[in-house]
Amino acid sequence: AGVVCAGNSSSGVVRLVAGPHLCAGRVEVLHEGRWGSVCDRGWDLSDAQVVCHQVGCGRALSALGGARFGRGSGQVWLSDLTCAGSERHLGQCPAPPWGSNTCGHQWDAAVECAGVPRCAQTLSGAPRCA
């Protein structure tokens, strides 16, 4: 199970996967129709705050690195994010161009958020409401 949240464009849709509950997990982003991960290089609580807000999970408790919730697959889309923490979605955060980093999946970023989404669609397609 995980949470999927749409951004305002095809780049920046976010999901949390492989975590212990819906509001914690590896951060994955959709870009050009493909899911990929975020590198933990420069990953901090401000970046995590944007993700937690975007998926409706309240404030960020921690910004985790080192593939804490397992290694993703596919492209590592983003690294060196410099979010202020107030952006509405990850795609608004300053960062190098999508896919331009040399990170491997051993450095996949993750978050742990404080809340539980009011009502979210799980990755299996079934709605799950708090």
TrEMBL record:
Signal peptide: none annotated. SMART domains: SR. GO terms for cellular component: membrane. Residues 14-114 form the SRCR domain. The keyword Disulfide bond applies. Disulfide bonds join 39-103, 52-113, 83-93. This is C163A protein. It comes from Setophaga kirtlandii. The gene is Cd163_1.
